[in-house]
Amino acid sequence: MKIREFKLEDLNILRVWLEQNYIQEFWGDPQVWIREISENICIEWVKYFMVECDKPIGFLQYYETDKAPQGEWSDEPIGTVGIDYLIGDSEYLGKGYGTAIILLLVDFIKSSNQYDYVVADPIKGNVSSIKALEKNGFKQNTNGLFGLDLTNTGIKIYRASKQDVSMITQLFRDTIQNVNSKDYPEDEIEDWSSWWTDTDKWQERIEEQYFIKAMIGDKIVGFSSLASDGYLDFMFTHKDYQRHGVAGNLLRKIERKAKEQGNDLIYSDVSITAKGFFERHGFIVKKRQFKKSRNKELINFRMTKTIK
């Protein structure tokens, strides 16, 4: 059994499948689906597949929840994809193929190294679909969706809002005073960390930039931001969550956004403390420099990474 990319000529067999009563019960009007797939087949944020066992037997799709139209999935973390699936050939029903095609799709999604979570929204009465999800490790969330964590880190990335300023600025101050203090003298640390009080500046950055936060439970454990020209402005991890994969997760989202913006490279002014992290993730030092914080000039490095 294998999956392959969906082609326009597959619409004919899919239409036949969708018109079957056992599929219409859960998928609804076939014409709605045919129209949607026809319109979206070339869009980057949704992918369609056919499942084959010598012949076509089923259909799969996944879509990026932060780009899809509003729905139950809209509040999911950045890096989440929603999935849908069906067995179109009735000969393959009740034989474990539903579980198998979900596994195929999840493995394909994992192999892209772009996504952290997978969600599905089966109709409540679709018991076989729910069982197939559960056999693949999906668990029902409080919002009713069934979810699978591909990272097993518990880290979830969301867009930051102005309501997050208090927690973000405290994290900024505490990280500088407890982590960056190993590489900078006390007077420079005090000067740099004093920016935490400038609420207007922080609100402006959140509004103007692609500003994201990393959450574990209800706690912000990191944040990062990217300007429209590819400037990576912030990358901070909570002092108690260093080396937990927070910054790496944030950076993957930043790089993905840079590609979407059409940036040729990401550039940043990186502290002594963070220099090693950025080098490990492919950034190159262009120059060592002094950059003014509030009243003090601090050593940092202009670093860049070409986006492919």
TrEMBL record:
Q: Which InterPro entries match?
A: Acyl_CoA_acyltransferase (IPR016181), GNAT_dom (IPR000182), N-acetyltrans/Recomb-assoc (IPR052564)
Give one GO molecular function term.
acyltransferase activity, transferring groups other than amino-acyl groups
Signal peptide as annotated in the record: none
* Chain ranges of the N-acetyltransferase domain: 1-164, 155-308
Name the UniProt key words of this record, in alphabetical order. Answer: Transferase
Q: Identify the SUPFAM superfamilies for this entry.
A: Acyl-CoA N-acyltransferases (Nat)
PROSITE patterns recorded for this chain?
GNAT
**Origin: domain of life:** Bacteria
Task: Give start-end ranges for the coiled-coil region(s).
Answer: none
Q: What is this protein called?
A: Histone acetyltransferase
Annotated organism of origin: Geofilum rubicundum JCM 15548
